[in-house]
Amino acid sequence: MTSVRMAVNELRRVSAGKLPKLAVFALILVPLLYGSLYLYANWDPYGNLKNVPAALVVQDTGATSSDGKHLEAGKEVATELLSGKKFDWRQVSASEAEAGVANDKYTFALTLPADFSQALLSPSEFKPRQGIITLTTNDANNYLGSTIANTVVSEVRRSVSAKIGTEAADKLLLGFSTIRGKTAEAADGATKLADGQAKLLDGSQKLVDGLNTAYDKTGTAVDGANRLRDGSAEVSSGLGTLRDQTKDLPSQSQQLNDGATKLANGSQQLADNLPKIADGNAQFAQKGNEIASIGQQFVGGLDQLNGTVAQDLKNAGFTDDQVKQVMDALGKARKPIDDVNGKIQTAAGQLNALADGSKQAAAGAKDLAAGAQQLSAGTSKLAAATPAMVSGINRLNDGAKQVADGNAQMADQLPQLRDGLGQLRDGATQLRDGEKTAVDGSAKLRDGLNDGVNQIPNPDDPTRQATAKTIGDPVAVKSAHQSEAGTYGAGLAPFFLGLATWIGGFVLFLLLRPLSRRALAAGQSSLRIAVGGWLPAAALGVAQVVVMYAMVTLAVGIHPARPFATFGFLLLTSMTFIAIIHALNALLGAVGKFLGLVLLILQLVSAGGTFPWQTIPGPLHPLHVGLPMGYVVDGLRHLIYGGDLSSIGKDVGVLVGYLVLGLALSTYAAYKQRVWTPSRLKPELVL
Asked: Based on the domain organization, do 258 and 319 belong to the same domain?
């Protein structure tokens, strides 16, 4: 009997009669019920969150910022949540929300406190505190509901943070624009300051140069003042000498006048005694010439003194006008002396003429008498003018003393003036050096402010708003799906389709016999018996996969990226799982059925069908690697979602290996069961 014949006979046995046929049909539908109905029920739970009741409590009273802007963040958040309709939001009081979460009227409650807006505005007043959103949950209502609520609160928190951050960043950038404007004004002021400092430095330099020049000239002035002091002292001394020499001049001129009178009176006697008179006249003329010489020397000394005084005054730094005034005063003081000198010179000339004429006196006694009268008149005038000349010389002497004293005081004070100029020059030099530092500092301030202006951002309104939005919400998520499941149900499909094939294979052996008793009794080949026992279950497994695959693709809405490969992989999965369960039943009987259930549980927790398998506890990792369900889930994911197929060879290889192993164990079981034992005839446990 061939294996196919054994399989056909087993199928006839389990389908003989109406109820057995219905039972076989029900077994075919088991994977369909498990796979398609479960996937349908969990197809898109997130799309139906709008039916989940949630309480919203808005206690926020609003707040006003320092710039007068009123913020009601609580109402804005409530409006956004209510308009979004992601949950069945119901705005209620705090007590009603608390009670509703406790009695399962609301899955969770979201509370925005009274100071919510105030807290959001607190950073602008440098009294920062966080705005608190209170989430009230009750895991007795639904644990995943609390998890989803936490996700919603995180999204609300992110949205509020982005909005407040955007507004804060906008104010910050606007403040930058204001700072830039003020800094630009400061830079203009610094530029003007630098220009003023530069001009002030030029003035300070000119002041220093002028003081240096004045200081140098005062040195020359000191020398000139010393020379002027010495010269004026010499003049004063000379005038004193002249005064001493001319103090007797009035008496002498009077004597001359008396002599002239006598001469007039004795002219007659002179005529009588001409030789003696001529000699006397010659002597008198000689005396007159000596007086005239003295007067001329005195006037010449005055002229030299005038030149010396004028030159010393010029050297001392007096202006031409000042020198002229002094010389005019000296001229007025010496005018009587010049007048007297002129008269003396005239009289000397007359005396000379008299001396000459005395030789002719004998011939012109009458003329001599007249000349004597004239000489007497001239000497009278000379005698009258001599006191005035002497008085002028005295006044000139007194003035010269005053000039000498003034020059001495000036000579004494000029060094002090020079020292003061030196100190002033040093102070001006320090001022100039300080101005240089100030110029450098103001230039650096100007350059720094100008550089700072260029570094301070000054975006236009659209750029500022876009920048503020980016600062407030800097990170956006761009999804790049290499492969995408689409819905929550589609994401679970690989796991539940694999479980459905295992459960389908498990329930088949509630009706089917693992090994044909007739073939065992007839001594058929162990391999033929094993294959013959596996084939009817494999055929029904194919029917299960066909019905399930058609339902989940046509009715539920799963559309595999590789439909034929997915269908073929499900067929291989079903055959492999049936081979494993067949081997357990054939080798261990009732215990094998129990182990099949245990393997189902172990694969449920280790296959990684919901969470990544790496999240399971470490002791379960060997189960994921060793049991076939993890490879089924991996293969179906890549085939249904259209992922990379580099690992599909390993998945198929593992399933084929388990298929061969299952048939090998079934063959071994068939070999052992060709010998009947008391435990086989009367087993201790029957399932």
From this structure: yes
Angle of helix 73-84 relative to helix 143-246, nearest 10 degrees, comes to 150
Contacts of 233 (CB under 8 A, 6+ apart): 404, 407, 408
Q: What is the pLDDT of residue 577?
A: 93
Listed in sequence order, the DSSP H helices in 360-477 are: 365-455, 461-472
CA–CA distance, 256 with 348 (Å, rounded to integer): 12
**Is a pLDDT exceeding 70 seen at residue 536?**
yes
- Nearest 10 degrees: Cα torsion 604, 608, 610, 611: 130
Q: Please report the DSSP string for 602-623 in residue order.
A: HHHHHS-SSS-GGGS-GGGHHH
Cβ neighbours of residue 671 under 8 Å, at least 6 residues apart?
526
Contacts of 318 (CB under 8 A, 6+ apart): 326
Greatest Cα-to-Cα distance within the chain, rounded to the nearest angstrom = 225
Q: Answer for the pair 654, 627: CB distance below 8 angstroms, yes or no.
A: no
Mean pLDDT of 76-90: 79
Pairing of strands 108-112, 70-71: unpaired
CA atoms within 13 A on the CB side of 389: 27
pLDDT of residue 594: 86
Number of domains the chain is built from? 3
CA atoms within 13 A on the CB side of 529: 27
pLDDT at 565: 92
Domain membership of residue 328 (yes or no) is yes
**Could you tell me if 68 and 12 lie in one domain?**
no
| The pLDDT of residue 417 is above 90 | no
Q: In this predicted structure, what is the pLDDT of residue 571?
A: 94
Three-class SS state of 363: coil
Calculate ∠ Cα 353-359-364, nearest 5°: 85
4: number of Cβ within 10 Å: 13
Cα(581)–Cα(506) distance, integer angstroms: 6
Q: Tell whether the model's pLDDT for residue 474 goes beyond 50.
A: yes
User: Residue 382's closest CA among 258, 247, 296, 241?
Assistant: 258
Helix (H) or strand (E) holding 135, with range, is strand 134-137
Verify that 526 and 612 share a domain, yes or no. yes
Same domain, 519 and 665: yes
Say if residue 604 is in the same domain as residue 659: yes
Secondary structure in 3-state letters for 49-111: HHHCEEEEEECCCCEECCCCCEECHHHHHHHHHHHHCCCEEEECCHHHHHHHHHCCCCCEEEE
Give the structural domain span for 114.
49-174
259 vs 284: CA distance, rounded Å: 9
Q: How far apart are CA 586 and CA 583, in angstroms?
A: 5
Domain containing residue 161: CATH number: 3.40.1710
The CA distance from 352 to 440, in Å, is: 87
506: closest CA among 19, 34, 40? 34
User: Considering only CA atoms, which of 101, 171, 178 is closest in space to residue 136?
Assistant: 101
Amino acid present at 304:
Q
| CB-based contact 182:456 (threshold 8 Å) | no
Task: Give 290-336 pLDDT, tens digit per residue.
Answer: 777 876 776 677 677 677 867 877 887 777 887 777 777 767 766 77
Cβ atoms of 639 and 498 within 8 Å: the answer is: no
**Tokens in use for 540?**
């029904």
Verify that 160 and 230 share a domain, yes or no.
Answer: no
Q: What percent of the chain has pLDDT over 70?
A: 61
Q: Using an 8 Å Cβ cutoff, are 140 and 86 in contact?
A: no
Q: What is the pLDDT of residues 609-624, one digit of tens each?
A: 777 777 778 888 898 8
Check: CB of residue 154 under 8 Å from CB of residue 178: no
Strand partners, 63: 71
Q: Which amino acid is at 440?
A: D
How many Å apart are CA 144 and CA 88, to the nearest integer? 16
